């Protein structure tokens, strides 16, 4: 969905061969709750910034939701060498269960705020800021359960991780991990995987 405002999606099961829900340019005030997602991917924002005249994406809430066997459950994706300079802001992800998360490299790939970077084309010019992830729990087959990759030119700002409990169930005999790049944020409460924010 794109260029939408004041939308509420709730109490539904979604199973597709792609994303459960895709959120595109110009979407504001979107509330998603009590959704069960069993698709290939989870709830994705973007890709953003690739086209001219794109609009900001603001005020998204995802809560009380279950992802079962998906990859990239929570994802914000921006394009390299952006044609638009836009802001992605005021997102809350809360009370979310992830069952056997399967990220490929993995708010982010289990939780994925991912700015795609191409050395020839340049970095993303989409500003991601004011993102809160609270009470995210469950299991991940990939050892990297939280992957925050942001643009050097437009680093992610004010990313809050609160009570993230994602246990690794894959073949590697180790705890789940987090990876961060160009992210300003904070951590509170319990953290499994080990966090990567100061």
Automatic annotation (TrEMBL):
Q: Which GO molecular function annotation, any one, does this entry have?
A: polygalacturonase activity
Query: What GO terms describe the biological role, i.e. biological process, of this protein?
Result: carbohydrate metabolic process; cell wall organization
Origin: domain of life: Eukaryota
Q: Mind telling me which InterPro entries this protein's record contains?
A: Glyco_hydro_28, Pectin_lyas_fold, Pectin_lyase_fold/virulence
Query: Where does this one sit in the cell?
Result: Secreted, Cell wall
What keywords tag this UniProt record? Cell wall, Cell wall biogenesis/degradation, Glycosidase, Hydrolase, Secreted
Spell out the family assignment given in the record's similarity comment.
Belongs to the glycosyl hydrolase 28 family.
Q: Which PANTHER family match?
A: PTHR31375
Q: What is this protein called?
A: Pectin lyase-like superfamily protein
Q: Which organism is it from?
A: Arabidopsis thaliana
């Amino acid at each position: 969905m794109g260029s939408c405002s004041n939308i509420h999606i709730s109490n539904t099961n979604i199973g597709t061969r792609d994303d459960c829900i895709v959120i595109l340019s110009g979407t504001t005030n979107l509330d998603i709750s009590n959704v069960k997602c069993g698709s290939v991917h989870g709830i994705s924002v973007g890709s953003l910034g690739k086209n001219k005249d794109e609009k900001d994406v603001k005020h998204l809430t995802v809560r009380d939701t279950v992802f079962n066997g998906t990859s990239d459950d929570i994802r914000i994706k921006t394009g390299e060498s952006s044609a638009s300079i836009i802001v992605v802001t005021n997102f809350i992800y809360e009370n979310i269960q992830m069952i056997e998360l399967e990220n490929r490299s993995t708010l982010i790939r289990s939780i994925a705020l991912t700015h795609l970077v191409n050395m020839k084309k340049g970095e993303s010019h989409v500003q991601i800021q004011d993102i809160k992830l609270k009470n995210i729990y469950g299991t991940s087959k990939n050892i990297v359960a939280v992957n925050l990759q942001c643009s050097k030119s437009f680093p992610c700002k004010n990313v809050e991780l609160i009570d993230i409990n994602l246990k690794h169930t894959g073949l590697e005999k180790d705890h789940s991990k987090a990876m961060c790049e160009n992210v300003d944020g904070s951590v509170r409460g319990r953290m499994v995987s080990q966090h990567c924010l100061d």
